[in-house]
Amino acid sequence: MRNHFDQHAASIFRRTDRMFAVLMGLQWIVAIAVAIWFSPHTWDGDQRSIHPHLIIAIVGGGVLASLPVAMALVFPGRTMTRHVIAISQVLFSSLLIHLSGGRIEMHFHVFGSFAFLASYRDWKVLVAPTLIVAADHMIRGIWWPESFFGIATASHWIWIEHTVWVLFEETVLLITIRQSVREMKSLAVHTVRLEEATQKADEANKAKSEFLASMSHELRTPLNGVIGMTELLAESKLDERQRRFVHTCQSSGKMLLKLISDILDYSKIEAGCMELEQYCFDLRELLDDVVLSMPIRLDDKNIKLTCHLDELLPTRVIGDSHRLRQVLLNLLGNAIKFTDQGEIRLFVHPQRIDDAQVKLLFSVEDTGIGIPADRLGSLFESFSQVDNSISRKYGGTGLGLSISKSIVEKMGGVIGVESQEGVGSRFWFTATFPRCDETSEPNQTTKPFHHAVELEPTDLPTTTPSFASDDPSAARILLADDNHVNQQLAREIVIGCGWQCDVVDNGIDALQALTSQHYDVVLMDCRMPLMDGFSTTKEIRKRIAEGRIHSRPAIVALTANALQGDRQRCLDAGMDDYVHKPFESTQLKNAVGRLLTPPAAPAACS
Fold first, then answer.
1. Of these four, 20, 70, 261, 515, which has the most CB atoms within 10 Å of its CB?
2. Three-class secondary structure of residue 522 per DSSP
3. Cα angle 391, 396, 399; round to 5
4. Parallel, antiparallel, or unpaired: how do β-strands 577-580 and 554-559 relate?
C-alpha cells in the first residue's frame, strides 16, 4: 500500500512542479508589466517614464523564476525542488505587492499562492512560506508601509490582521490537504486490493486454462484409440453385420468427440481463453473442403447441397481458418440434421472490399422444418433448443450456435437467422478478414474451385493418398508416445503404409534412438514422462546443430493438445507439422507423406 501511495504522491509532485515552472515564467512577465504600467503612477504620480522598479522587476523576477524553473526541469518531484518553488512563489507575491505600491488587489496574490502550493498535498511545503509572509508583513508593515500598504503611516497592528487572514486560509488548506491525503491512502488500499483480486483472477484463469488443456488431453487420448482402432477395424475383412457394428462405433465416437469439443470450447469462452489465430489461408480451398466433407453426413436423405461463390471473392485472406470452418460445419450440419429432403445452399458474397480487408457475408439456406418465430430470439443462447422434443429426436447440446456466435463476434461480425416454420431457415453471418498479399508467399498454390458446386448424397470425396508398400528402402519413422493404445494405433497406420516404425515411451529414449539410428520422420507426443515433446524437439534441433545427431528428421506433433495456440507452440518449438488427437488415418498419412522426400515415400498404403 505504501508503495502505491508514494508513487501517487510522486506523480502529483512532478505534475505540480511542471505547473509552477510555467507559472513562474508568467509571473515574471506580469511583474515586468506591473513595473511598466503601475509603478510610475503609484510611486511618482502622473509622471510617465522608465521607472527604477522596472530593473527590480526584470532582475529580481528573473532570479526568483530561474532557480525554481531549473530545478523543476532537472529535479522534478524532489523535496528540495518543491520547497524552493514554495519560497520563490511567496517572494513573487511580495515583489508584486511592492511594484504595485501596496495595492490591495495584489495582496490577493498571497492567498492565491498558498492555494496553488496546496496542490502539492504536502503540509510541510506551507511552513517556510508562512514564516516568510508573516516576517514580510511585520517588517515592511512597520518600517516601510508605503511598500506594503500603499500609505505613509500605518497602525502597528494592521500587519497582524493581514497575517491572521493568511493563517486562516492556511488552516482551511491544511484541513483540505489532510482529507486529500486520506483519500490518496484509501485509493492506494483499493488499488492494492484490486491488484490482488486481478492477480487471483489471472491465476484462476491460468488454472482454468491448464485444466482445459489437461482435460482436452485426457479426453482426446482415449478417444483417439477408440476412433482410430474402429477405423482400422473397418478397413479389415468384415461381414455386413460386423461392418454395421463398427460403423455404429465410429459414429458414436465422432459424436462424443464433437460433444467434448463443444464443451471445451464453451468452457474456453466462459473463461475468456478463446483467441483467434491469424495466418494466411486459401478461402476458396477452405470452402471446397467444407462442402466436400458434407456428403458423408447426408446419409440416405434426398438432399442436394450446393455452394455459390461470388466472382469477386478474394482467394487468400488472413484469419483463423479452423474457427471459420467450425462455424460453417456447424451451420451446414444443423441444416442437414433438420432437413429431410430438398436443397441446402451455401452462399458467400463480399459486402465490402478494399485494398486492406474484405467483409464477407456467409449464408446457409435449407428447406427443413423451420423454427417458430417465438424461439428465434433465444436460439443463440447456451444450451438453447427449439423445444425438448428437438433434443430427443435430433440430439445435440444446444451449444453449437452459441459457440458459433462467439467465434463470429471475435471475427468482427454478427450472426442472425431468418426462418419460417414448415418452410425452411436461413442462417447468416458476417466476418471481416485482412487481405493476404499473395506476392509475399510465392510457394503457396491455389486449389481450383468452381463458382457453384453441387453434391448429391451419393457423391463421396476420395481423400486417401496413394502410398505403397514393400519397398525395403522405405522411410523409417520414430514414434514417441507414452500411451500404449496410441502407440499401437499409430504404428498400425505407419506399417500399413509400408514404412518402418520404431516406438519409444519418452523423450530421453527418443534422443537415444536418434543418436544410434537414422529416421526420416519423428511422430512426437507433447506430453510424456521424463522429457516432454517440446523439450525433446528443442534438444533434437540443438544436437543436430552440434553434429551429435547426423540425420535431420522432420518432426510431427502427434498430441491431444488441441487448445488455442497449441499448434503455434509446437511450430515455435521446432516441429514441422501438427496433428491433434483424435485423428483419422488419412490425416496422419497426409502429414507424414508431405514431409517425406519422394524416394522414401511408398506408392500406396495397404
1. 20
2. strand
3. 115
4. parallel
Q: Does residue 392 register a pLDDT over 70?
A: no
Q: Is the pLDDT of residue 332 over 50?
A: yes
Q: Which three cell numbers stand for residue 108?
A: 490577493
Contact 556, 578 (CB under 8 A): yes
Of residues 506 and 224, more confidently modeled: 506
4 vs 10: CA distance, rounded Å: 10
Residue 64, pLDDT above cutoff 80: yes
The residue-averaged pLDDT of 127-144 equals 83
Check the CA dihedral 579-581-587-592 and report its sign. positive
User: Which cell numbers in the block locate residue 65?
Assistant: 523564476
Give the list of residues 6+ apart from residue 383 with CB closer than 8 angstroms, or none.
397, 398, 399, 402
Count other C-beta atoms under 10 Å from residue 573's C-beta.
20
Q: Phi first, then psi: what are they for 517, rounded to 5°?
A: -140, 145
Nearest-5° Cα angle at 306, 303 to 307: 150
Distance between CA atoms of residues 393 and 375, nearest Å? 18
Using CA of residue 188, residue 189, residue 192, residue 198, what is the dihedral sign?
A: negative
Q: How many CB atoms lie within 10 A of CB 358?
A: 20
Closest by Cα among 159, 163, 164, 161 to 149: 159
- Closest C-alpha among 192, 130, 200, 198 to residue 165: 130
Q: Is the peptide bond before 553 cis (omega within 30 degrees of 0)?
A: no
Measured between alpha carbons, how far is 318 from 327 in angstroms, rounded to an integer?
17
Question: Which neighbouring-strand residues pair with 281?
Answer: 317
Q: Residue 76's closest CA among 19, 6, 125, 5? A: 19
d(CA 596, CA 515): 20
Cβ atoms of 395 and 448 closer than 8 Å:
no
Among 52, 62, 51, 54, residue whose Cα is nearest residue 32: 54
Q: Please give the grid coordinates belonging to residue 88.
A: 520563490
Name the grid cell of 176.
483540505
pLDDT of residue 66 exceeding 80: yes
What are the backbone angles phi and psi of residue 77, rounded to the nearest 5°? 85, -10
* Mean pLDDT, rounded, of the chain: 80
Backbone phi, then psi, for 568, in 5-degree steps? -65, -35
* Structure confidence at residue 465 (pLDDT): 35
Q: Note the pLDDT of residue 431.
A: 94
State what percent of residues in the chain have pLDDT above 90: 19
Pairing between strand 424-434 and 415-420?
antiparallel
Distance from C-alpha of 601 to C-alpha of 465, rounded to nearest angstrom: 11
Q: How many residues does the chain have?
A: 606
